[in-house]
Amino acid sequence: MDLRFSFLLFLFLQAVSGLLLAAASNVAYPSVVDTGAGDCSVSDGGDGSLTPIRREVYDNGRIIDISHRFTVDMPSWESDEGLGQFLWLPKSMKNGSLANNSEMKLPAHTGTHVDAPGHVFDHYFDAGFDVDTLDLGVLNGPGLLVDVPRDKNITAEVMKSLNIPKGVRRVLFRTLNTDRGLMWKKEFDTSYVGFMKDGAKWLVDNTDIKLVGIDYLSVAAFDDLIPSHLEFLEGRETILVEGLKLDGVQPGLYSIHCLPLRLLGAEGSPIRCILIK
Ligand SMILES: *[C@@H]1O[C@H](CO)[C@@H](O)[C@H](O)[C@H]1NC(C)=O
Ligand SMILES: *[C@@H]1O[C@H](CO)[C@@H](O)[C@H](O)[C@H]1NC(C)=O
Ligand SMILES: *[C@@H]1O[C@H](CO)[C@@H](O)[C@H](O)[C@H]1NC(C)=O
Predict the structure, then answer these.
(1) What global pTM score does this model have?
(2) Which residue has the least CA distance to atom 11 on ligand 2?
(3) Is the distance from the beta carbon of residue 123 to the nearest atom of ligand 1 less than 6 Å?
(4) Which of 143, 232, 252, 271 could staple 260 via S-S, CB 3.0–4.6 A?
C-alpha cells in the first residue's frame, strides 16, 4: 500500500474512533442517576432532550444483564444505611477542568461480586489467590438457572432434591431473596437464604458445579456464614458469584458470562455477569 495513502487511512480511522469515543462518553458518564428498582429502558422525550437509556436486556432479550447497578441505596454488608456515596468528581468541567474525572471507593464485596479463595483462608490470601487468579473458563460457559424451594435454606437435602445432572458446571440458584427483593432494599437483612454448611459440602462432594451463583450478598446463609464459605473455597476450584439480579428471568439453560476486575491482591471484586440465550 502507498505510504501516503496508508497514512491518510490512519488519520481517517483515528477520526472515526474519536467520533465513536465522543458518542460513547455520554453513555459512560450519564448525568442522570437513577436509583429506582424498576426497569428503566428507553425514554426519549422526543423533544431532543438528552436522556440516557438504561437497559436490563439487550438485543431483543437475547442478552440479559444479571448484574445490579451500583447505587448509593444498594445494600451493603451489615449496614442499615446502604452503600452510600461511592463516586466523587475531583475534576469537573463545571469547575473548569477539561474533562470530568471521577474517583470511586467501595468495599470489594459490593453488589454483584465474586469471592476468591483468599476471602476466608488467610494462607491462600498470603499465597496470592486473589481475584486475578480466578479461572475465566469457569466464569464463562453453559450453565443453569434453577429455582430452589422457598421454605428452606440450601441444605444437603435441598441440593439432593434439585437433581442437578452430573456434568453441569455452572448453576445460578434463585431463592426467596429474589421474591423478597432483598437486593433492592437498602437495609442489610440477615434472614436471607443461602447455603448451610451441609449443603455446600454436598455440592462440592457430589456435583461437578464449579460456578455457584446466588441472589443476595453471600452464598452462605448468615447462620453458617464462615463454615459454608470454607466448604466452597477450600478446594480452590469453586468460584462464588454473589448479589446476582435474577428477577424475571426464566429458569433454564444459558450461556453465562462473568468478568471480574483484575485487582491484584483483592479477595473480592465487583463482577459484570450476563446471560445469553
Ligand atoms: C461533567 O460533570 C458535570 C458536573 O460538574 C456534569 O454536570 C456534566 O454532565 C459532566 N459532563 C459530562 C460530559 O458528563
Ligand atoms: C467546584 O468547586 C467548589 C469549590 O471548591 C466546590 O464547592 C464544588 O462542589 C465544586 N463543584 C463540583 C461539581 O465539583
Ligand atoms: C435461612 O437462614 C436464616 C439464618 O441464616 C434465617 O433467618 C431464615 O429464616 C432462613 N430462611 C428460610 C427460608 O428458612
Answers:
(1) 0.82
(2) 95
(3) no
(4) 271
